[in-house]
User: Fold these one by one.
Assistant:
Number 1:
Amino acid sequence: MLLELRELSVSYGKAVALANISLHVAEGEFVAVLGPNGAGKSTLLKAISRSEASTGALEFRGESLQGHPAHAVVGKGICHCPEGRRLFPELTVLKNLMLGAYLRRDASAVAADLKVVYSLFPILEERGPQIVSTLSGGQQQMVAIGRALMGKPALLLLDEPSVGIAHRLKIEIFDAIKRIQQSGCAILMAEQDAQSALRVADRVYVLENGHVARSGSSDTLRDDDHIRRIYLGV
Ligand SMILES: Nc1ncnc2c1ncn2[C@@H]1O[C@H](COP(=O)(O)OP(=O)(O)OP(=O)(O)O)[C@@H](O)[C@H]1O
Ligand SMILES: [Mg+2]
């Protein structure tokens, strides 16, 4: 298994944000995590990238990530595109993208991956020398995803890539994420837009109050009464 969590828990002081979560992602799979505000989606991704401490089993390709620092997890092939993008707004598009490759020494492969990012998001090649703070929100999200890809992930963690983005760009971004999966990279994506997530993901976990409330294939969950009522509004 690429990623496997068993009984994973995270607390902030006395508040339990994740309680005994078990989930997995197979090689090349596209898995979405749905759930309302405060459900624990971002906490889950932070626990996986080791930017938040957790208890329980956290394994990548059979090896425990517990105790490893966040940069070591990047080196193993897990790249996190965080909530709110966290770009360097005063640096150029190209500098921000290249920061995603800071651990890599394979210059020619890095150059090839930059070409891959540009083919996914052609606007970024055109805007390479532009200062990131002057891009639109959707374009900044493309930079954030592109930066994570520059780390050459086997597993890409995406935290609400479509939040605050106009419908047209949102479709473009989800289609690009689908193409990233088709290139062989597994994806674990937190998302509140259930409709879009069910369209692109193979499998879905629904988080509510730090617990897994539902899980299954997108096809199954699309017909689930609870999902239809609460998340699809139908
Ligand atoms: N650094 C922190 N310190 C204390 N509590 C936190 C911290 N980060 C998150 N929490 C709490 O943990 C719970 C889960 O938060 P989390 O950010 O994981 O939710 P989320 O599902 O990503 O929500 P959203 O959709 O709004 O981004 C919330 O109750 C939140 O208030
Ligand atoms: Mg969040």
Number 2:
Amino acid sequence: MTTNTAIKTLIKDESLPLAWLDMDRLEKNIAQLKTMASPLKIRIASKSIRCRYVIEELLNNHSDIFQGILAFHPEEAEWLASHGLKDIVVGYPYLRWFDQQTSIKKEWDEITFMVDRREHLEVIDNMAKRLKTKINICFDIDLSTSHFGIYFGVYRSSLKNEAILKDRLEFLKQCQHLRLKGVMGYEAQIAGVGDNNPFKKILNPIIKLLKKSSMKQVIKKRIAMTKLCESYGHQLAFVNGGGTGSLHFTKKDPSVTELAAGSGLYAPLLFDYYEDFHFESAAGFALEVTRQSVDKTFTAAGGGYIASGSIGQDKSPRPMNDEEIKLDINEGCGEVQTPLHTSKNLSFGEAVLFRHAKAGELCERFNQLTIIHNNKLIKKPTYRGENQCFL
Ligand SMILES: Cc1ncc(COP(=O)(O)O)c(C=O)c1O
């Protein structure tokens, strides 16, 4: 496997900062995802990749593992479909975008849009009626659970129980231009929450317990909600569930026909914090050492690429050999400069490798990924590098 030293040697003449992706490590992560997901296939969560070339490579070279895309915006889905990509589910609902459409696009044949409220159904049906077409939709069912009064989950979908889903299924009867193609039930509290987070040591055992107890409820609910859709005569093409952190659990749900994952491919810092599996750090960025203020303290250019979500130390990027190079507690990763404390003797112009806390967000900071493959560098544009910015 490519070592960090080899990566630094390979990029020694490149201009910095740059974002890198190592194909050797990516292949290891693909194999790990396969083990976790098999026999089900994985729909690629594009938000965690944000590079069209990588998505295409995964779908073309690993069609036994990956099938379809879970996109995060209708415009993104259209753009991917315009490049020939197929079977795209937009994972989150939108409203205005549908009002703004003035003509049918052939790309929509490949796209399924997410809904959970009557308002979502109404706005898409109105558009489809106006444009005289049919649109594929998918229900996002909420899989948050409750344990002795503790809410364990996320606040996204309104489809919290069978009565609410029934209401939407009744309403759907009036929506003549919609076709219910699938159901998605993402157990965010299991898939997206680490249970071995060094920044949340007190919480880890509680999270572990909550996850265990949540799993049973999740499976029961997803089965019941799926059955309810089918009882209305809908023939579902897919029932999607899971994320990187839950593949091995979600595949056991007999109602699930496919899984979703993305983060395990690049394997950012937050995915180190799960007890059940290990991924290789396949992507990161490199900053240039530009200054030395005092003895044992250097400064690198760039670096302030903090991850989204609740604010915390675990959302900061970190140098890859962080035993030897530490961030400054007061300054952290700075807007344009990042101080580094180290007993190592860094040289000016030297590259320091970092990892991001989240996967795809890295690509929003760089126009291209520098891909390391067979000891060579290949440059491929990120979404941003293709002038695509969706959220
Ligand atoms: C709907 C949905 N499915 C699946 C995932 C899992 O993605 P990943 O494997 O990148 O964590 C997410 C992540 O937030 C999501 O929102």
